[in-house]
Design goal:
Blueprint: E1 2-5, H1 15-30, E2 34-36, E3 45-49, E4 52-54, E5 57-58, H2 61-70, H3 75-80, E6 87-92, H4 96-99, H5 105-113, E7 119-122, H6 125-133, E8 141-143, E9 167-173, H7 182-188, E10 194-200, E11 212-213, H8 219-227, E12 231-234, H9 243-250, E13 255-257, H10 263-267, E14 271-273, H11 279-299, H12 306-321
Parallel strand pairs: 1-2, 1-3, 3-6, 6-7, 7-8, 9-10, 9-12, 10-11, 12-13, 13-14
Antiparallel strand pairs: 4-5
């Protein structure tokens, strides 16, 4: 089987899609799947991610339409190329209108591309609901949470809180969008008995206060900071399926999360819901439940891995190639 991963990744921090596609590509290759990024080459399955063909670069919908109809995007190849049928797998996150509150060409592309997909993978039940509300009513879909590179993000050699030292909290986002909850992160740094670290871009118009900011870092360095921390703080709004949240869980970090988007769906069994009316109370609950949450994360750690998730993606592609979509 040959798959076209129509998303050119970059080797620097750039959001969850870039990280996930790197992980998925590596998983496929380890499982003897041939990979190409050339949309006009030979392949069995075209794998699309949202509206993008690379970080910050949207794909041309007419190319996808042509592949669905003719097997090729290139006009020359349509005429002279060997005829073929390509199956299209479409991985969807969310709509920018929902998580950023703005209208976007990205949303238009995603909604118009839906009919061309043979199988759609929604990253969460929340993501499926977003597109259902926008008009999607098909049954050619699966809900699969993202998976992380557990060669980096794991519980090996990490420090767990023993109750004797300040609770070391970490938050992380490559985006400076205020919807990521930077103001809440700064307020947690004022709580007595905690130390708050932040990895990523911090918005200029929000004071970081006592937060220890590290700036954007490579994944391997992020993983090391996670392993030196005790709790992950995730106050982001309307997230469809955060890779960063899953990376933190893979590192054994119980989560303080805000009940928005898919956060409860992903972290509800492994964390404490934060409530703005009492930051101190959330920390108290976390201290009380820390051992239980930590044990639960350790027992179920495999589910966060790209190995577990990649098997589900691979099965979908194999079924499509053998003529079934169930």
């Amino acid at each position: 089987m040959r798959i076209c991963l129509y998303y050119r990744t970059i080797d620097k921090p750039w959001g969850g899609a870039n990280s996930f596609i790197v992980n998925l590509r590596n998983f496929f290759m380890k499982n003897d799947v041939e990979i190409t990024t050339d949309i006009n080459s030979q392949y069995d399955v075209l794998f699309l991610n949202g509206a993008y063909k690379a970080p910050g670069k949207m794909f041309d919908l007419s190319s996808i339409r042509a592949i669905k109809r003719y097997g090729y995007a290139s006009f020359i190849k349509r005429i002279f190329g060997q005829k073929r049928k390509v199956k299209i797998v479409y991985r969807l996150d969310g709509l920018r209108k929902i998580y950023a509150g703005v209208n976007s060409k990205m949303d238009t592309i995603q909604l118009q591309c839906l009919p061309y997909a043979d199988h759609i993978i929604f990253q969460s039940k929340f993501a499926h609901q977003i597109f259902s509300d926008a008009g999607y009513n098909g049954n050619n879909f699966s809900v699969i949470h993202n998976g992380v590179n557990t060669n980096m993000f794991n519980i090996a050699g990490r420090d767990f809180w023993d109750g004797k030292y300040p609770l070391k909290i970490v938050a992380c986002s490559w985006s400076a969008n205020p919807a990521k909850g930077h103001a809440i992160i700064a307020r947690y740094a004022d709580v007595e008995g905690v130390e708050v670290h932040y990895v990523g871009k911090w918005p200029q118009n929000i004071s970081s206060g006592k937060v220890i900011c590290h700036g954007p870092l490579p994944q391997r360095e992020i993983a090391e900071i996670f392993k030196q921390s005790h709790v992950f703080l995730f106050p982001a709004l309307q997230e469809a399926c955060s890779n960063t949240l899953l990376e933190a869980l893979a590192c054994g970090l119980p989560v303080l999360y805000i009940d928005s988007g898919s956060n409860r769906e992903i972290a509800g069994e492994y964390g404490i819901e934060l409530r703005e009316e009492s930051f101190e109370r959330s920390i108290t609950y976390m201290r009380e439940q820390y051992g239980l949450l930590r044990a639960r994360i350790e027992n179920e750690n495999k589910k966060f891995s790209i190995g577990c998730v990649g098997e589900k993606y691979l099965e979908i592609c194999q079924k499509l190639c053998h003529g079934s979509d169930s």
